Amino acid sequence: MTPPKTNGKAIASMVLGILSVMILYIGFILGILAIIFAALSFKELKRGYEQGKGMAIAGLVCGIIGVLLWGLILLFVVLAVAFFGSDIDSSTLYDVMSTVPRLKTA
User: How confident is the prediction for the chain on average, in pLDDT?
Assistant: First the structure.
């Protein structure tokens, strides 16, 4: 008798969850996808014909950690730009640019 196969959505959830913690710019999106795939795999695993509950749990946990991690980093960047980005005055920028020597053209 052959053992039951592993659920593909559980594998995808685990892989995407691990990648969501490791990849910088798209980690937030990968974490959301990991959570979705984990939820779908839990529904399929309730039927009992496949294995992979541990992988689905790992994908769910890593996906949640990835979403929280990159969500906090994104929030920090937005707040930093909001608080410190308005300190640049356009007249100061003009003064700096006026000291750059002009290039002679033919």
Answer: 87
The whole-angstrom separation of Cα 85 and Cα 81 is 5
Q: What local confidence, expressed as pLDDT, does residue 36 receive?
A: 97
- Are 63 and 17 in contact, with CB atoms under 8 Å apart? yes
pTM: 0.75
- CA-based torsion, 55, 56, 57, 63: positive or negative: positive
Whole-angstrom CA distances from 35 to 15, 22, 51, 88 are: 11, 16, 18, 40
Q: Which residues contact 52 (CB under 8 A, 6 or more apart)?
A: 6, 7, 10, 11, 41, 45
